[in-house]
Design goal:
Layout: E1 11-14, E2 17-20, H1 29-41, H2 51-90, E3 96-104, E4 109-122, E5 128-132, E6 137-139, E7 143-146, H3 149-156
Antiparallel strand pairs: 1-2, 3-4, 3-7, 4-5, 5-6
């Protein structure tokens, strides 16, 4: 196979077929398909590619395409989940919650407090934070209990 160096435009030619080079310097499924087509077009008709080798390349191409599709589907799922997490946590506004903070890392001593949630936001790292009635932002992973026992008792009476 004859691979020529990339011209200034960002394309390279393999056996006379132009193959675009992705901006991130990784080959995509379209590039693999172009390479495979170029290989088939330029093979020696008296000594064609071995059937097993061709089937193996097609299987690899199919796997690559399926992995790409699965990666895109997973990314869409993560994006939707992250978008709905803020809405789900907003249901805590006006609710008294029990939350914990680590006092001593060596003994893993946790101190708990109860506060009302006033607001919910997503920080720059993508984590959900809750604004408490004392003016402090806590990470949603610090929540220990929602819907405290004394609130349930008051609702029953």
């Amino acid at each position: 196979m004859n691979v020529q160096p990339a011209p200034a435009s960002g394309e390279k030619a393999i056996n006379g077929v132009k193959v675009s080079e992705p901006e991130d310097s990784t080959l995509g499924k379209d590039d693999f398909l172009k390479i495979l087509i170029a290989q088939l077009q330029n093979q020696d008709p008296l000594d064609p590619m071995d059937d097993r080798e061709f089937i193996a390349q097609m299987a690899q191409f199919s796997s690559l395409e399926q992995m790409t599709n699965m990666n895109e589907a997973m990314q869409r799922f993560v994006d939707r989940h992250e978008g709905s997490a803020l809405v789900q946590q907003s249901e805590l506004i006006g609710t008294t919650v029990k939350w914990g903070s680590l006092v001593d890392e060596e003994s893993a001593d946790i101190q708990y407090a109860e506060n009302e949630v006033l607001s919910v936001r997503r920080n720059e790292q993508g984590a959900i934070e809750l604004l408490l009635d004392e003016g402090r932002w806590i990470d949603s992973r610090q929540l220990a209990q929602i819907g405290l026992d004394h609130e349930n008792e008051a609702a029953e009476t």
